Structures are given as structure tokens and as C-alpha cells.
Amino acid sequence: MLPHTQGGAQDLCFQQAPSFRQSYEAKSAHAHQTFFLEFKELKEVGKEQPRLGTEHPPNTTENQYPHVLPYDTSRDRLT
């Protein structure tokens, strides 16, 4: 259990820890199905962002993971 003092960051941590634990336990029920569904929803996030530089044929061999592609606005440009 985290230390509890009146006010300050320690009090804030104390109050948030049980909430996180309860959330984790609820999502862990039913063979982690809730975690799977939550992760599945993330597949749709960012699909409208351009990835033209990453998908350019000379750059495809530089992608570490073929299913994880950086957006044009956030990718490192190799020289």
C-alpha cells in the first residue's frame, strides 16, 4: 500500500492506485477478453494519417516491423 499523507503527490497516488487495480481486475476477468477488445479497437486509430514515405518501395526494407508503420509527420528520415 502506498503511503498516505494529506495533500500532495503521495495522496494523489494513494487515491489512484485502487482505481487502476479495480480496472485491471475487471479487464482481466473472462480470460482477458476486455483487453483483447480494447486492443482491437486501436487498429482503427490513425488510419487516415499519411504514410507515403514509409510505404515508398526503397524504404520498405528499412521498416523494422512490417505491420507497424510510422506516419509521415513522425517518422525518422534516413539519409
Q: Which properties best describe this structure?
A:
single chain; about 80 residues; mainly alpha; about 0% strand; Receptor-type tyrosine-protein phosphatase V-like isoform X2; Prot-tyrosine_phosphatase-like
Question: What is the topological layout?
Answer:
Blueprint: H1 8-28, H2 33-41, H3 52-55, H4 57-60
Organism: Sapajus apella
Protein name: Receptor-type tyrosine-protein phosphatase V-like isoform X2
Region (Disordered): 46-79
SSE string, helices as H and strands as E: HHHH
Approximate strand percentage? under 5%
* Secondary structure tally, helices: 4
Give the overall pLDDT as a whole number. Answer: 75
The helicity comes to: 40-55%
Structural class: mainly alpha
Largest sheet, if any? none
Rg, rounded, reads 20 Å
Distance between the termini: 50 Å
The tally of strands reads 0
Given as residue ranges, the uncertain stretches (5+ residues, pLDDT < 50) are none
Large-scale geometry: elongated
How would you explain this protein's 3D organization?
The chain is mostly helical. The protein has a domain at about 15-60. Helix content is about 50%, strand content about 0%. The protein is built from four helices and no strands. It has helices at about 10-30, 35-40, 50-55, 55-60. The longest helix is centred in the N-terminal third of the chain and has 21 residues, at about 10-30. The model has no long low-confidence stretch (mean pLDDT about 75). This is Receptor-type tyrosine-protein phosphatase V-like isoform X2. InterPro entries: Prot-tyrosine_phosphatase-like.
